[in-house]
Amino acid sequence: MNALKKLFGGNTRQFGMIFALVALIVFFQIFTEGRTLTPGNVINLFNGNSYILILAIGMVLVIIAGHIDLSVGSVAAFVGVSVALAIRDWGIPWYMGVLFGLVLGAVIGAWQGFWTAYVGIPAFIVTLAGMLLFRGFNQFVGKSNTIPVPSDFQYLGSGYLPEIGPNTGFNNLTLLLGILAAAFVVIMSLRARATNKALGADVPELWVEVTKLVLICGAILYATYLFATGRPGTSFPIPGLILAVLVLIYGFIADKTVLGRHVYAVGGNRHAAELSGVQSKKVNFMVMLNMSVLAGLAGMIFVGRSTASGPFDGVGWELDAIAAVFIGGAAVTGGVGTVIGSIVGGLVMAVLNNGLQLLGVGADLTQIIKGLVLLAAVAFDVYNKIQGKRSITGLLMKNFQRNNDIKPDETTSTKEVISKEA
Amino acid sequence: MTTLDTQDEPILLEMRSITKEFPGVKALSNVSLRVKAGEIHAICGENGAGKSTLMKVLSGVYPHGSYTGDIVYMAETQQFKDIRASEAAGIVIIHQELALIPELSIMENIFLGNEPTKWGVIDWAEARKRSVELLARVGLREDPDTPIKEIGVGKQQLVEIAKALNKSVRLLILDEPTAALNESDSQHLLDLILGLKGKGITSIIISHKLNEIEQIADEITIIRDGKSIETLNVKRDGVDEDRIIKGMVGRTLESRFPDHEPKIGEVFFEVKDWTVGHPQIQDRLICKGSNFYVRRGEIVGFAGLMGAGRTELARSLFGHSYGRYIKGQVYKDGKPVNLRSVRAAIDAGLGYVTEDRKSLGLNLLDDIKTTTVAANLRAISKYTVVDDRKEFSVAEEYRKSLRTKTPSVEEGVAKLSGGNQQKVVLAKWMFTDPDLLILDEPTRGIDVGAKYEIYGIIQRLANQGKGVIVISSELPELLGLSDRIYTIFEGAITGVLDKNEASQESLMKLMTSARKTA
């Protein structure tokens, strides 16, 4: 149990979410009479949600640093329409279009980062303004029209791994990818185990490790099987591939790099971070900038998938991304969250959406259910904290009391002053 | 019950053998306090002596049942269960940090929680009439509609008293009322308290400013180490500052310090004319042209009462992380250095361990190993990628050398005791390998055993040739640890004493008065 927990960030809510995800999949698989885990549906699910999951990667970093970004949907739409126009009117090739989109995203992110980090306006306000601003820009430059993109650009949003090599009945590249992924997981966890052992740190028992690896590899290979056996012409989707690469990169940045450490430090206790020499303004700036770059990428993938850019692209995406992050175990107060957790959170929402659709549940009821799931996921966590079991808040409270105990002559805390007023 | 007192004035309040325990600590033991009706009664004691705890017991912050002993007030035994209960009985406490809402007007603040109503609607006409009267009583000439944030601290203090008067106060408790005030505001406040005394309001005043106490108090109760030591009658006993200090510090120095043979080298760190303004208030200075130096291998103490500007001095030096830099220069090894950011200060070889471990020193979400390396990630990373193995082994090394008690360095810092948390923070700064380490209240909230260990660590650092600055409210700690001690009063350095010429009395004198000799 601990090993699994560790893998997914050691957070009760994230751990619970993995199980919730599995349970949801099983539930829908049974009640849709097997229509959930079919190659077509799984491919669809990834195609239709990859852009939200990409947003969730950026959003989790923003939220860990203690901010929020409400503008991602509008930024995605603005970048999408700008790239579509650039390709149509300037005749630039698709890859130059992608580069242009990423640079535009970075410029927008620098704008929002400047106001948030250096002027000190709360990100909520900056990005609320950005939400209006870039939605307006989208409709202004696109004249509220639909602007089609060429087919090579569409590959970005709706392409698949090509068929190469001998005819095995599977898509060979997908198969190769799946096997590589499984091997990667095995090697990484064995290496981590060896390292920890060498250092004398806690190592989970062998059978736990093996069970864990068997389960994970089984899931990966089963998914591979589904992706590789879709109807001819389909296989592992390109947006899914982009997503996987991003998860690896950002997971690494968050966990292993100095910058990642600084993001957690600023979100956990900004003052302590600053007094340790962390330049919190720079960190906040980078986080906001990165979010808009990823929003731009998501916008381009969506345009590629829907073959054209429109005036209402990306409406409501920010809320889906934020929901994914919180379901995935991040804390509203910052300092807590993981990339992989947010992806799981996003998948929970995606599977729910997809399954309810397959069951023929209307959009109205689907929204109600999604709202309740979000509330329940966070309420579960808050409840755990109130119970004071292995929760951060509980520990803080406990410590606060102990602290009082040791220095009884401390000056009055605000709480007492407030209770006096009340 | 009636009192057996033989003196002329009746007893308004008697606290009898109050004992208040926190797990592991006896904050008050058998404290007694007698306050006569219509007098001004001062409570004196060092930081941590138990003054505020006693007042919290009295005002119901610590409810009846959480302490032992009796509170007899107006000839009846009281069992206050919260602050409202004590206020209903006419006991109002004014805290050092004012409980006013900056955005609301003077009038709204006076009546907050106590609004005059007519048919359930606030009667603003009545409120205005009464606030004009109250403001006249406290001698504050301001429009009742002025927002609190637009008047100075001195005037805010008067609004607090007006608020108390509105609650028909009988016993007014003032906790460090003049700590944040300038000379003339303090004088006005003291005159007001004397005026209230003339109108039959009894006051208890807690203050570090002994000259003020000498000036206005009728009686003084001295508390030391959670025990009431003595009650002095100012007029009858002819009490002066020296007498109060003697009562406050009269404890013997136990051998609570590891043996240490200082190896002091040449001066390597020097601060000249360091002047810093208050971060918000325009013309207030928090450091007034401070000059000091530190030698290699030397432990330099900084003594000063709470609010004297010790922490402000340290933080303004450490990367200008507090206040507005006005002028002054720092020299290291004879060369001027610029400490404009925390990063620059760390690079210049400074480290600062804050007094406020929880809110400024630690990210309580982190584990021990992450915290240990947090200020020097460069040393364990290559191309900005953190090396987990190095991180773990560094943390493990410090865990062993500082003897941090924890099952593993992967334990969250929030789970550790105060002493072990402090060791982790020390490890964090030791890992940056500073030449000068500034320790602000390094043993605050730490039990005796851990204190001894921390002292040992500090001495080891000095023996390695580093300079160490120790800021502490506990004079015995400074005397036991330091090779030289500077005293600070109201933002200015008022003196420096060598280890062998310093005593609690001589320090306290310099800490409570403006510079007498240069």
From TrEMBL, chain A:
Give the primary localization class. Answer: membrane
Q: Where are the transmembrane segments?
A: 12-31, 51-80, 92-111, 117-134, 170-190, 210-228, 235-253, 285-303, 324-352, 358-380
Keyword entries, A-Z: Cell inner membrane, Cell membrane, Membrane, Sugar transport, Transmembrane, Transmembrane helix, Transport
UniProt keyword annotation of Nucleus present: no
Membrane-topology descriptor: Multi-pass membrane protein
**Which cell locations does it reside in?**
Cell membrane
**InterPro entries found in the cross-reference section:** ABC_transp_permease (IPR001851)
What function does this protein fulfil? Part of the binding-protein-dependent transport system for D-xylose. Probably responsible for the translocation of the substrate across the membrane.
What's the protein name?
Answer: Xylose transport system permease protein XylH
- Which organism is the protein's source? Paenarthrobacter aromaticivorans
Lineage of the organism = Bacteria, Bacillati, Actinomycetota, Actinomycetes, Micrococcales
